[in-house]
Amino acid sequence: xxxxxxxxxxxxxxxxxxxxxxxxxxxxxxxxxxxxxxxxxxxxxxxxxxxxxxxxxxxxxxxxxxxxxxxxxxxxxxxxxxxxxxxxxxxxxxxxxxxxxxxxxxxxxxxxxxxxxxxxxxxxxxxxxxxxxxxxxxxxxxxxxxxxxxxxxxxxxxxxxxxxxxxxxxxxxxxxxxxxxxxxxxxxxxxxxxxxxxxxxxxxxxxxxxxxxxxxxxxxxxxxxxxxxxxxxxxxxxxxxxxxxxxxxxxxxxxxxxxxxxxxxxxxxxxxxxxxxxxxxxxxxxxxxxxxxxxxxxxxxxxxxxxxxxxxxxxxxxxxxxxxxxxxxx
Length: 330
Prior knowledge:
The protein is an alpha/beta fold. It has helices at 3-13, 58-68, 82-93, 135-148, 167-180, 206-213, 220-234, 276-289, 294-308, 319-327, and strands spanning 17-22, 24-37, 44-57, 71-79, 101-104, 110-117, 120-127, 154-158, 183-187, 201-202, 238-242, 248-254, 257-263. Helix 1 packs antiparallel against helix 10 and helix 2 crosses helix 8.
């Protein structure tokens, strides 16, 4: 892959619609200092200096596609609460379409508040519901998908086990997408791990695949064996396995053979791995819409992930920054 190829991929992907369905979150960062112990109890006193809100979960995937130059359409659920209003306001400020957001008055908007001092996470406070959405909300999500499917060639299912991607909805979306010849990319979590059958790309990380199979995988050979069993059970076309500091591994169905390729990690220094998986799946989808091969898309996404983990907190990858990083790879 050379500069011309990368340029063509990005130009072809610009403005192409990618649908994201999954758990939407607001990430709140409270930054300050700890310098004393409270006289009221043996606990640290946190002096708040600043706070800011960022898109998280499926909304972060949406933002990454937006900052790469794509056209994301996010479908998910928020609550009728202040957090939901903050999230909506943040999306509007970033010029992201909010028409796919469904308000459920019976659920809170998922919010993760991280308290940080001197670049160290002191605590994370979660406000959320993990109950499955009801049938009415599920039908609203499906109708949103139907309404925008004509202009969509890729769907990302972004699961954080917060109840939006129910087993029923997963099966309905996959069946619908396959009929419409829309390719599905999956970023899974434990609860629904084996529900995502007949998809184009399945992207677990090391922990997720070990949790799903209930065992520690100790060697590349054992990983290959486990992934082959996974592909047999899911009947998926391809698996992209993220391995942290060991990089990524691609299992690509090529005709009658399974092609396995490894890509080394590109992180120069790791400050915070939060959101790296979101960057990977969004960059892969973006590049595929631009005509990249699976290997090319994964290679570029690996460089993108290496860039975002150098920053503290969840940050998206930007097109110009990524292109600059890719210059060092040629």
